[in-house]
Amino acid sequence: MADAPPEILELNVGGVHYATTRDTLLREPDSLPAAALADPEHPRDARGRIFFDRDGVLFRYVLDYLRDGGLVLPECFREHKRLAREARHYRLPGLENAVKEADPRPPNRERGCITVGYRGSFAFGRDGLADVKFRKLSRILVCGKVTLCRDVFGETLNESRDPDHGLADRYTSRFFLKHSFIEQAFDMLQEQGFKLTASCGSGTAGGAAELKPGVDSEENRWNHYNEFVFVRE
């Protein structure tokens, strides 16, 4: 530390060490880092590094903001609220606003989960040998809190099997979609900030049981049921 040039400073943030320049810390004159640099009484560690008792990992974004005057977050970043709190502590209103603008989740959006399931098969041509028509879905089921389901699927949601009786905050397992395009359902969930967290699938074929009239034996052999759990935090 004693041999380092005076314009190079070392910081200790919650046990994580950083090196930066004096000009970087002074870039925002009203910020806590600038005040700490000017205050001889500010806490330092055993090696004389300026000490902040804060989240050492998130400080990298604070330091990036002081260096560049802007904010760039990883695509998978999910700690916007914590970083905004750090920005407030360091008295960096510009960074706090940038974090809030970068947060893809509206502040008042309801959290929760929605389960989407479907029973399907594969449609085959004659004798099961030709003219494969790929996936065949009979119905896409939607389960979850009613307000969330309506928020995501809107007019594409069929509520006829579970009509509204005026109950607040109720849940349902009997809604289904008016279309049979599972990828469209996934797109609508993604657009509303939901992420896929779990899925499962199983075969549902009846084996040697006698088929119902009009049911193709090959299609029956490929019957399956899949569920997908989506969460919005």
From TrEMBL:
Phosphoprotein in keyword set: yes
CC annotations in GO: neuron projection; plasma membrane
Any one Pfam family match given in the protein's UniProt record, by short name: BTB_2
Keywords: Cell membrane, Cell projection, Membrane, Phosphoprotein
Domain Potassium channel tetramerisation-type BTB: 10-95
Lineage top rank: taxon: Eukaryota
Ranges for domain KCTD8/12/16 H1: 112-232
The protein, known as: BTB/POZ domain-containing protein KCTD12
Species of the source: Parnassius mnemosyne (clouded apollo)
